[in-house]
Amino acid sequence: MTYLAFRLASAVMPHLPEALGYLVFGLVGDLLWLLARDIRERVAGNLARAVGAALPAQELATLTRASLRNLCWNYYELFHSSSWNVATLASRIQVEGDEHLEEAHRGGRGLVLLFAHVGSLEALAHVPPLYPRYRFVTLNERMKDLRMHELLLRARMRRGLAFIPLDEALRAVRLLRRNWILVVAADRDLTAGGVMVPFFGKAARLPVGAVRLGLRLDVPVSFMHAWRETSSGKSIFHIRIHPPFRFARTGDLEADTRAGVAQIARELEPVVRARPEQWLANYTFWPAA
Questions:
Q1: Which of 95-104, 136-145, 213-222, 267-276 has the lowest mean pLDDT?
Q2: Would you list the DSSP string of 11-47?
Q3: Exposed, middle or buried by CB within 10 Å (0-12, 13-18, 19+), for 279?
Q4: Are the CB atoms for 36 and 247 separated by under 8 Å?
Q5: Beta partners for residue 93, in sequence order
Q6: C-alpha to C-alpha distance for 188 and 185, rounded to whole angstroms
Q7: What is the largest CA-CA distance in the chain?
Q8: Residues near 160 by beta carbon (within 8 Å), at least 6 away in sequence
Q9: Mean pLDDT value across residues 114-125
Q10: Taking a C-beta distance cutoff of 8 angstroms, is the pair 137, 181 a contact?
Q11: How many CB atoms lie within 10 A of CB 120?
Q12: Tens digits of residue pLDDT in 188-198
């Protein structure tokens, strides 16, 4: 049923008026908020910790509902923007800090580009067509439903972003050595091999791969995030690429790795707090007490 719904969305969404598309998928987010208790409570708990204040119940409920709408809008944007050409992308996506891409490219050692699950992930996926002189690759987790996996993969591969299965990560490292840009998540540990570091005041398990690559291969590691704004009835997507991290090098790789991951967590926190309603917070960041 889910696969058929996504097949239908991939055929219809590129042609649906944008205001209507956001309305429909926003209503899907409202239904999630009303009916999916586990998701609603997980998102609400994450948001309450991130905001860091004792929000009244009604305000937290409103924020949680907005976050779930943003989650569903990401699916709408996946299909709606699939037909955009480069000129349309350039008019809808505004990138700050792309000089860091050029600096890394000139260095010839590749770049690990971390992203946060904030705003529109589809806007981030549209970066490669805007910079055809660079080559981008990312890791993807295999979904249990192989039909869904292939459908979503095809939708995203149209944008010039190469995909490598998560369990074949060494292939991505080889491309990194050939001056590719490796795009990976900063805030979700999909391999269960991360380390516990402070994140919004409580220890969370975050991924270590980017920091280890930076330390072992002397590859620059930068961070980017996106946010969505509305202008003249259309969504405008902003992307900010931050300067490369400067990780401590004491000679103790494990300690330096943990310190680097903690540094990334500190960079994430103000990004989430600036627009908590755009945080894709449907993930278990902290272990149960």
A1: 136-145
A2: HHGGGS-HHHHHHHHHHHHHHHHHH-HHHHHHHHHHH
A3: buried
A4: no
A5: 237
A6: 6
A7: 56
A8: 128, 129, 132, 136
A9: 94
A10: yes
A11: 25
A12: 998 778 999 99
Q: Which residue has the tokens 């981008």?
A: 136
pLDDT of residue 71: 96
Asked if 113 contacts 182 with a C-beta cutoff of 8 angstroms, the reply is yes
**Hey, what amino acid is at 83?**
S
Of 131 and 53, more confident: 131
Nearest CA among 271, 268, 272 for reference residue 281 = 272
Strands (E) across the chain are located at 93-96, 111-115, 136-140, 161-165, 181-185, 195-199, 202-206, 221-231, 234-241
Q: What is the pTM of this model?
A: 0.90
238 pairs with which residues across the strands? Answer: 94, 227
User: Residue 119 has what DSSP assignment?
Assistant: S
- 171-187 core/surface letters (b: 16 or more CB in 10 A; e: else): ebbebbeebbbbbbbbb
